[in-house]
Amino acid sequence: MSFKIDVVTKIIKERLTNYETKSYSYDIGKIISVGDGIAIVSGLDKAMSMELVVFEDGNYGMVMNLEEHFVGVVILGEENSIKEGQVVKRTGRIIEVPVGDGLLGRVVDSLGNPIDDLGEIKNDGYMPIEKVAPGVMSRLTVKQPLKTGIKIIDSLIPIGKGQRELIIGDRQTGKTALAIDTIINQKGQNVKCVYVAIGQKASNVALVREKLKIHNSLSYTTIVMASASSNAPMQFIAPYSGCAIAEYWLNKGEDVLIVYDDLSKHAVSYRTVSLLLRRPPGREAYPGDVFYLHSRLLERACKLNEKHGSGSISALPIIETQAGDISAYIPTNVISITDGQIFLQSELFNKGIRPAVDSGLSVSRVGSNAQSKIIKKLSSSLKLSLAQYNELLSFTQFGSELDSVSKNILESGAKLVELLKQKQYKPLSNEDIALSLFAYKYNFLNDIDISLISKYEEELHLYFKNNHQDIILDLAQDVLNEEEIKIAVSVFTKDFKLKNGILNV
Ligand code: ATP
Ligand code: MG
Q1: Residue 145 DSSP label
Q2: Mutation test of ligand 1: which of 153, 171, 173 has the most ligand atoms closer than 8 Å to its C-beta?
Q3: Fold that domain 98-118+141-377 belongs to in CATH
């Protein structure tokens, strides 16, 4: 008899253990309360952070708060038909997005669904939107240039592949314009681009798409959009989704450029989600981990070594400041995470100096390793000249008499500022930038009036294109044959001066 009891106990014990593991009771929960895009769900004890769950009406949610007796789920989509008491199912998957070349030329939402009326997207698989960034051992230093085609950036604040360079400035200072021009300049460079629009008006994003299309740049670009009308959780996950899409190409050894436009609105969406989830607010009501929000995102930008396929993700996050205050909470966070910043000033923008880059406050901490040799050589003294010019400029406001040296600095500085102006959607090739810098460095602009500088520059580029393909080819290969270029530029300059009445025959 005692033998039988043992057997029965064993069987019961076995069944009990199996019962637990086989049970689905942990995978189905019930909504306790719902409101403001948040559902509090009980019974999902095994849910993971950022896991996707499905509501009864087929809508998705994302698990964010893991508490002892319930989880906080943010609703990704409409919450109208989600009611208290309904069932919620776990999917066992961290949120993922479709990835692959099929996404190029498309506009998708934060979950990778197409929103551009071009039909279904053929994807090559899925990638989780949250991923631990590549470790130190799999990385290389930044040493290949990522050319923006913008004179002042490529010469003074050069960016390298794998770098994270912040674009920061007040509203309407040309932040988006810089990023879009950089995307346009990647044409034919084998760099795929991802533009993540967070909390912007959908009409603005449509305009960006249109401009990329006109400049034949949509075919290598994916736009991820969580517009101002999307709910906060969709805005919050958009940059991570964009990064996952980029990581697919990174893993294939390709180069990718990703633009986050902008992370200020991203931080606000995270604050909204956190406050709704009743997480304790900290400084400026942002939750305590708002630094981690951006650091874990930007850390995923990298240059991988050969063993890992040599791919790269370069990131251009954008931050909007209030009245030029770069020492506010979110701006300082992102400044400290990135490898440098391009600071845009409303004052310069309104004076017509566009791109309105403040050369004093802008810096690229790693990019000069990646800068092309010729541009490095030709731009070596530019920063100093600009600094001297700006300093003297403030003096002249007091109306003081100036000596001839100061007058020279002012005159040549003003010409440099004029030369560094650049129109939107007109990124220049490295060769053209080199020619412009060359003309300035060797004083060919001396007798040319400021009003003629942009004309001079345009014609100079054209002259070389038509007459000196050999020099252009040399420049493209990073070879600077100064004597040869000097002769050619002086021939052109003389001709230009004659034509414009600066020199008489
Ligand atoms: P927001 O804060 O609204 O996002 P932003 O800082 O992204 O603005 P943009 O939208 O890029 O600024 O540019 C503002 C305006 O300035 C646009 O009308 C744009 O066409 C113009 N602009 C930007 N850069 C240049 C430029 N280099 N030359 C001429 N116009 C420019
Ligand atoms: Mg913008």
Answers
A1: B
A2: 173
A3: Rossmann fold (3.40.50)
